[in-house]
Amino acid sequence: MWKDRGKVGFGKRSKLGHVDFPRLKEGGVDLQVFAISSERDPTPAYSLRTAMEMIEAFYTECEKYPQLVQPVASYNEIIESNEDGKIAAMLSIEGADVLEGRLSMLRVYHRLGVRMVGLVHSLRNLLADGVADNRTKGGLSVFGTEVVEELNRLGMVVDVSHLSDAGFWDVIEYSKDPVVASHSNARSVCPHPRNMTDEMICALAERGGVMGMNFAPDFVDKKKPSVETLIDHVDYIVDLVGPGHVGLGSDFDGIPSTPRGLEDASKMPAITEELVRREYSEEYIRLILGGNHLRLLKEVIG
15-160 adopts what CATH topology? Predict the structure, then answer.
């Protein structure tokens, strides 16, 4: 994971990682979120500079291949990009270390096109405890609550994946907008702390949120990770809260391996095939494949 694409880029099909523009196109992906972050470390070095370099690389790649991809920052831009036959590409932050403790940096990232922010990247930072660094069972700090409020004001989506359980519940309390768990599964199906409990899923759904299925094998099924066992999570969530709160998150290029049948972005149609095999209606399939996320994005980012 996190392979150096400096010499390869995203414009040509390659065997590097899981995602490039041709493979996204082959997989029928209409909207891809690209996450920027600092190194995953308790005290990441040069986090702001790293984020700026990643944003610059994102726009450079998009400018190289305007016939394939279009950067987007609103619901209407997503729709227009798809109508033009292009992949819509949206920026997110995974781990708000890149704010370097400055609330004003959120406004800068917003101007640069970022529309989704994950507060932590598993480790504790100035905002909250992460799922992998929560011995004290802490939730959001004062700064963390201020960030959530500012994200709501700016029209940026709050992402609760990687947060400690206590942090999740704090976000549910403080956020006025629906939130996403961009890449988290059901803990009852696969017991892993990065997945969500039934209570979390219900609270997320009650507030209009959406969770995206993560393809990391350890989060899917510890014995037989596959497209089939991934859809077992979808089945469970639909039974629990209905079809309006589950979608796809993948975590492609952020995981070292994938479930059988989902080796890269070109294999995404396997999910549709499995949903059809399980006799999901066309309406439900459209919601799961992106309709739920589009509904939330339209509400939050406008």
Answer: TIM Barrel (3.20.20)
Can you list the alpha helix ranges (DSSP code H) found in the chain? 21-26, 47-64, 75-83, 104-111, 142-154, 165-174, 198-206, 217-220, 227-241, 269-277, 282-286, 292-300
For residues 122-136, average pLDDT: 86
- Residue-range domain boundaries for the chain: 15-160, 178-302
Residues 6+ apart with CB under 8 A from 196: 168, 181, 184, 185, 186, 187, 204, 211
Are 92 and 36 a contacting pair, CB within 8 Å?
A: yes
**252-262 b/e (C-beta count within 10 Å ≥ 16 → b):** bbbbeebbbbb
Q: State which amino acid sits at residue 7.
A: K
215-239: per-residue pLDDT in tens? 999 999 999 999 999 999 999 999 9
Instruction: Classify 178-302 by CATH class.
Output: alpha beta
| Residues contacting 32, CB < 8 A, separation 6+ | 19, 24, 87, 88, 89, 90
pTM of the model: 0.94
Name beta bridge partners: 128: 140
